[in-house]
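Continuing the series of single-chain predictions for the mutant panel. This is the parent chain; the variants come on the following pages.
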Amino acid sequence: MSDSANTPLLGATAPAQTAPQRTASAPVAERQKIEEHDAQSTVRDIQAAFPNRSIALRIDEATQIVQTLVRDDATGKLLRELPDEEWLRLVVKLRAFAAEAILDKSV
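Parent structure:
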């Protein structure tokens, strides 16, 4: 696990709220609120299904992919990261390769 202490977690302790209406023309801030509400709702549902586990979501800064962190409530030990750090590093490398291949006109 890399810099999860510096990355904000979604859904950790947010109060329940009504989901805003979804529209295609919703401003970016409104869409982010909707996505955060969906993430918080999902975390609550998962925590209800697994009462001995803490579930947190974070957005990986390099890839903008949502990562799920699963911890044991009793020990606080990190049990699982989905996707794991190795996978996220691979995504960064593949995106860099693809960007370079597209820009390279000699291929």
